[in-house]
Amino acid sequence: MFCPTCATSQPEDLKFCTSCGANLFAVRKALASRDADEKFDWSKTWVADMMLSHQERKERDQARKLERGETAEFMRYKEIKDGVITSSVGAGVMVFLYVLFHGIIASGKVPWDVVPILRVIWVAGVIPFFIGLGLAFNGVVVSRKQVEVARRELEARRDARRLSAATRDTDPSLPASDWTEPPEFGVTESTTRELR
Hints:
Elements: H1 24-33, H2 46-50, H3 54-67, H4 72-106, H5 115-120, H6 126-167
Helix pairs in contact: 4-6
């Protein structure tokens, strides 16, 4: 058998991959339980990811961000930080260009018709400076409302989850398929990678 995670060849009697720790027993069980008449599900492949619409891709990315802990408040602080950094870079570019070109002008080796251009070329740093100010302003003022909306949605989800947890039937004597909501984690969820 080949390990589906690291593609190394493994003997049939092993329960876990000796290279990466993947659960080979579960893979064998899943392959054995699949009906021969069952069709392949293309929606779970990388090909399906390529075919997603812009809206579906956006929703999937938002779900992944939430899984990684990138909340609206985290994104707001990141946007403010990015704005401050961009503004600082713009200010630095302005100062650098101003000093550089005024030094070149002071050397006296520049033709007189080029001097007016060199005196104002430092203005190019204004572009990143104002972009950074815009990002910081957006993070401070505009994104605050997005954080409030996201916080309300999160609280509504928590309330709904608490309500469903209070009403769901998770009696251990019942099979897991009869539970209204699956448990949030498994006992062996993170142990397979540590078994070598």
